[in-house]
C-alpha cells in the first residue's frame, strides 16, 4: 500500500464520520421539534382565548375580532380566529398560568407563540396608515399575533370589516372604544397633531386585561424590517424593576437647540421616543402607574401649559424621576426619521444603511421628511404599501387553524368545472374590504334623504369628478383595485379639488382577488354603507341631471315610499315595497353636456344627440320603461316586470341585496330586479328625472362575454341556478318568472 492509498483511506474515513454526525444531528433536531420547539417567554402558547374577554364598550373595554351580532344590544362582537371553542368560555384568571393552549395535545405544546400588540387607531385616515404597518408585521412574523386596538366607532367598523374579510391565519383582535378613555386624558392640553388620541397610550395598563402580562405598543406610522418576535424576546432582558422598554430619542428636542423659544418637558438626557414601547403590565400596575403619571402631569402642566409631543412628554417626565423603570432598547428597534433626527449618527455604522429593524416616520411630513435616510427607507415603506395583502393570509408554522383546509375542500368540491370555478367561488368568497378609505363625515338630512350607490374599477376614476359635480348628495362607492392602485386612488382624491372637498362620499376599497370582476359583491358593499333611508342604485358611468338629488328627495313622500309608521297623513295600508325608476339615456358624443331638464333632453332626443339606453344592442334591458310614454308624461306611472328588465331604481335602504354569484358582465342587475319583482315590489317610473350614460371604452368583461363561449356558458348556468332557487323559495308565486325566463 503506497502513500496515495493511505491518503484515500483517511479521506473516506473522514467522510464517513461527517455523514454519521449529520445523521445524528438531524435526528436530534427532529426530536426537539416534535417535543415543542421554541416556547413563549413564560412557556405559554396562548395565554387566553379571545372569547374569554368580556365586552364592555361603554367604558373602554374590548369587543372581539370575528364579527358576531349581539342579539340584545345589536353591537358587533368578535371572537378568536385561532381555533378555540367559543361555546365554552374559559375563566381568564385560571388561564394566567396556563402552560399551553387548551385543545392542543402535548405534542403541540409550546410550538405556537403569541405576541400581544397594542395600537391606537382613531379616525378614518389612521386605518389606512396602520394597514401598512400590519402588512410589514405579517410579512416578517413567525408568531401568532393578538392585536389590541384602541379605536373610535368609525375605526372599529373599518378594522372589524377588514379583518373579517382579510381572513389572516393566527391573527386575532380586541377593540377598546376611545369614548370610555377620553375622561382619563381630556384634561391634558396637547399641541401635538395627534390630539387627544396621542395621550391614550398612558392608560393602557389600566384598560388592558388583568391576565395580560406583556404588550408591545406601537405608533401607526412605523414599519417593520424584522420579525416582531425578536422584539418580544427582549422582555427576557428586563430586570425585576424594569417595566418599560424604550429607545432613546434620536433628536435634540429634550436637549434644546432645535428651536430658540421653546422649553421641553423634563427628560433624562435625550429622553425616550414612545413610538415603540414594551410594557410589563403587572409591574406597572404594582407601582400604581396611573396615579404616578397623573401626579407628575398635574405638577408640570402649570409650568409647561401643554404637551408638545403628546404622551411622550409625560412618559419622559415620569421616567426622569423613576429611572429604574426603564429598559433602554437598542436603537435599531425605533429608527426615527424626522427632520432633526440623528438616527444615522447615533445608530448606523458609517459603512452600513441596513441595520434598522423598525422604521419610524415620526414627523408630520411623513414620507416627505428631509432626512438623509428618508429616501432609502421610503422605498421600503412603498413596497409594503403596494404589497398584495392577500399573500399575507398564510399561517404561522405550528399555528395553522384546523378548519382552513376543510373550508377549502368543501368549496372545491361543488365547482361546476375548471373554467367556471371563478364564477362559482364568488358565491362564498370574501374579498379583503377596507371601508371608508378616505375621510367621511355625513349625517342624513331627514327621512327622505337619498344616497347614490355605485361601484367602479380603477380605469373609471376619471368619472368621479363629473359625478360629484352632478350629484351634491351623499354617495357610497365601492372600488375594485389592487394594493398599489389603492394608494394611487388616495393620492388622486387628495390631489383633486373637487373630490378632496367632499366629505359625504364614502369610498370603500375592495382588493382584487381572482379573475372575475365581483360586480354584485361591490354593489352590496356600497349598499351596506348607505346611511340614509333611501338609496339610488346607479352605475359610475351615468351622470345625473344637475338637480336629480333634490328631485329624488322630493319624490319619496308623493310615491308613498316612506314606511307608514314614519309618514304622517297617509293611509297605513299603503304598500311599502316600491321601486322608483329613473329613466336611463345615453350619448355617443364625448363632449356633449348633460341636459338640465326634461325639455332640453327631449330636444336632444329629436336631434339624435341622446337616445334611450342600449336601444340598439340590448333593448329588453330598458324597453319596459316605455320611453315614448315617458316623454309625454307629467305624472308617475306603473310598469309591469318583463324578462331582462334592469332599470336604475330608488328604493329603501333595506332592499334585498344583490346576488353575489353574478360577476363580470351579464345578468347582475337583471337578477336583482327579478328578485324584487317576485317579492312584490311595485315599479313606478318617475316622469321628470333622468340619467345619461357617458361613452367610454368597453370593459374587459364585456369583451370576454362577446368573444368566449365558455364565459357565456357559465353565465347561463348561473341564470338557471338563480331561477331554480327562486322557484324553491317562492313556489307558485315564481311561476310567472320561470316561464318568462324560458322564452
Structural class: alpha/beta
CATH class of the largest domain: Alpha Beta
Low-confidence stretches: 32-110, 402-416, 564-575, 739-743
CATH topology call of the largest domain: Spore Coat Polysaccharide Biosynthesis Protein SpsA, Chain A
- Tally of helical runs: 25
Oligomer: single chain
CATH superfamily of the largest domain: Spore Coat Polysaccharide Biosynthesis Protein SpsA, Chain A
Give the biggest beta sheet: 9 strands, mixed
Globular, elongated, flat, extended or rod-shaped: what is the shape? Answer: globular
Going across the major beta sheet, what is the strand order?
A: 14-17-16-15-18-24-20-25-23
Total strand count, please? Answer: 26
Q: What does the average pLDDT come to?
A: 80
CATH architecture assignment name of the largest domain: Alpha-Beta Complex
Give Rg in angstroms.
31 Å
- Number of discrete domains: 2
Cα end-to-end separation = 98 Å
The share of residues in helices is 25-40%
The proportion of strand residues reads 15-25%
